[in-house]
Amino acid sequence: MKARVTVMLKNGVLDPQGEAIRHALGSLGFSGVTGVRQGKVIELDLEATDPAAAEAEVGRMCETLLANTVIERWSVELI
């Protein structure tokens, strides 16, 4: 089983990388972009067979290591 974790900055937290991307896109002629939020995706290969247990375990991974829960939010998708 695989799990895909998406980690993004929480709303209200400044995203300087996202702003740099938005500015660069504008410089390259992509004028319709008004905002960018940059994040990360982590894919995990799991030995689990129970989806509910796997999702709970990955959630603990996020809370412990994969996300800074003070400024980031995360979501888990089992694939």
TrEMBL record:
<keyword id="KW-0436">Ligase</keyword>
<keyword id="KW-0658">Purine biosynthesis</keyword>
<keyword id="KW-0963">Cytoplasm</keyword>
<dbReference type="GO" id="GO:0006189">
    <property type="term" value="P:'de novo' IMP biosynthetic process"/>
</dbReference>
<keyword id="KW-0067">ATP-binding</keyword>
<dbReference type="Pfam" id="PF02700">
    <property type="entry name" value="PurS"/>
</dbReference>
<dbReference type="GO" id="GO:0005524">
    <property type="term" value="F:ATP binding"/>
</dbReference>
<comment type="pathway">
    <text>Purine metabolism; IMP biosynthesis via de novo pathway; 5-amino-1-(5-phospho-D-ribosyl)imidazole from N(2)-formyl-N(1)-(5-phospho-D-ribosyl)glycinamide: step 1/2.</text>
</comment>
<dbReference type="GO" id="GO:0004642">
    <property type="term" value="F:phosphoribosylformylglycinamidine synthase activity"/>
</dbReference>
<dbReference type="GO" id="GO:0005737">
    <property type="term" value="C:cytoplasm"/>
</dbReference>
<comment type="similarity">
    <text>Belongs to the PurS family.</text>
</comment>
<dbReference type="InterPro" id="IPR003850">
    <property type="entry name" value="PurS"/>
</dbReference>
<keyword id="KW-0547">Nucleotide-binding</keyword>
<dbReference type="InterPro" id="IPR036604">
    <property type="entry name" value="PurS-like_sf"/>
</dbReference>
<protein>
    <recommendedName>
        <fullName>Phosphoribosylformylglycinamidine synthase subunit PurS</fullName>
        <ecNumber>6.3.5.3</ecNumber>
    </recommendedName>
</protein>
<comment type="subunit">
    <text>Part of the FGAM synthase complex composed of 1 PurL, 1 PurQ and 2 PurS subunits.</text>
</comment>
<comment type="function">
    <text>Part of the phosphoribosylformylglycinamidine synthase complex involved in the purines biosynthetic pathway. Catalyzes the ATP-dependent conversion of formylglycinamide ribonucleotide (FGAR) and glutamine to yield formylglycinamidine ribonucleotide (FGAM) and glutamate. The FGAM synthase complex is composed of three subunits. PurQ produces an ammonia molecule by converting glutamine to glutamate. PurL transfers the ammonia molecule to FGAR to form FGAM in an ATP-dependent manner.</text>
</comment>
